[in-house]
Amino acid sequence: MENELKHNTESMKAANQPGIYKMMIFGVLVCMVGTYARFAFDSWVLSLVSWIILFIGAIICIKGVFKILDA
């Protein structure tokens, strides 16, 4: 079985760091808060703030994905 994929390479170790996935989970939680806030309030100011929170969470998640792809 010489053709087996080796998952012990440096790039795989870097891509599987728990910190990256913790950051992505945090980003998903922030997105959930932003999504909830969009439908929970009726003011245009709070709606704008909830959109900003939602996009911040999305940026955090995208940052985590790019860290995995960069490894």
Topology:
Elements: H1 10-15, H2 18-40, H3 44-70
Description:
This protein has 71 residues and is an all-alpha fold. The longest helix is centred in the C-terminal third of the chain and has 27 residues. The chain is rod-shaped and about 55 Å long. Keywords: Membrane, Transmembrane, Transmembrane helix.
Q: Give helix % range.
A: over 70%
Whole-number average pLDDT?
85
Give the tally of β-strands. Answer: 0
The oligomeric state of the chains shown is single chain
| Radius of gyration, in angstroms, nearest whole number | 18 Å
The chain-level structural class is mainly alpha
**Strand residue percentage:** under 5%
Q: List low-pLDDT spans.
A: none
- Span from first to last CA? 26 Å
Q: How many helical elements?
A: 3
Largest sheet at a glance?
none
**Order of SSEs:** HHH
Keywords: Membrane, Transmembrane, Transmembrane helix
Transmembrane segments: 20-39, 45-66
Spell out the key features of this protein.
transmembrane, membrane, mainly alpha, transmembrane helix, single chain, 71 residues
Summary of the model, kept short:
With 71 residues, the protein is mainly α.
